């Protein structure tokens, strides 16, 4: 009986570790992560995909592509921090966050925008407009 409990715990621990490895692999490449982020409407998921894309970014992916992802991540982060979930069902799902969480998320978005700003002139007109809109949204909150 004593040994079966230990064996069960070892099996559960192994299963937990192996499933964590599976969960941490959201996508296979920078472009795969970006494509998956664009396919979902849910901001929290978008943020996860964009974070993974930036984590596995390679110089060969291009600095401009990285700046675009930073801008898109900042967009999702700001909108999520302000209560929009991105959910597009029969009802508009909004949430209210604690002020500390909202402030921390807006700081993260500001850091992403600061980094994306280095390539701002190379971004398209729509992207520059989004950049300015996000700066204003952060400033007014």
Explain this structure.
The protein has 141 residues and is mostly helical. The chain has one domain. The protein is 70% helix and 6% strand. The chain has helices at 2-24, 30-39, 43-55, 63-81, 99-116, 125-139, and strands spanning 84-88, 92-94. It has a two-stranded antiparallel ribbon with strand order 1-2. Helix 4 (63-81) packs antiparallel against helix 5 (99-116), helix 4 (63-81) runs parallel beside helix 6 (125-139) and helix 5 (99-116) packs antiparallel against helix 6. Residues 1-23 have low confidence and may be disordered.
Task: Give a short summary of the structure.
The protein has 141 residues and is mainly alpha-helical. The protein is 70% helix and 6% strand.
Q: Strand tally, please?
A: 2
Shape: globular
Largest sheet: 2 strands, antiparallel
Helix content class: 55-70%
Quaternary structure classification: single chain
Tally of helical segments: 6
- The run of helices and strands is HHHHEEHH
Strand-residue fraction?
5-15%
Average pLDDT number: 87
- Computed structural class: mainly alpha
The count of domains is 1
In angstroms, what is the radius of gyration? 19 Å
The poorly predicted ranges are: 1-23
Euclidean distance between termini CA atoms: 59 Å
Instruction: Output the strand order for the largest sheet.
Output: 1-2
Coiled coil: 106-133
Keywords: Coiled coil
């Amino acid at each position: 009986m004593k040994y079966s409990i230990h064996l069960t715990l070892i099996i559960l621990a192994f299963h937990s570790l192996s499933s964590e490895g599976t969960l941490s692999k959201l996508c296979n490449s920078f472009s795969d992560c970006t494509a998956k982020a664009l396919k979902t409407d849910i901001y929290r998921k978008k943020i996860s995909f964009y974070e993974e894309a930036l984590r596995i970014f390679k110089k060969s992916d291009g600095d401009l592509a990285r700046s675009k992802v930073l801008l898109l991540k900042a967009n999702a982060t700001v909108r999520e921090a302000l209560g929009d979930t991105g959910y597009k069902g029969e009802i508009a799902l909004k949430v209210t966050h604690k002020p500390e969480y909202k402030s921390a998320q807006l700081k993260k978005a500001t850091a992403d925008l600061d980094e994306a700003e280095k390539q701002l002139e190379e971004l398209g007109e729509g992207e520059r407009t989004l950049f300015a809109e996000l700066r204003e949204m952060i400033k007014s909150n």
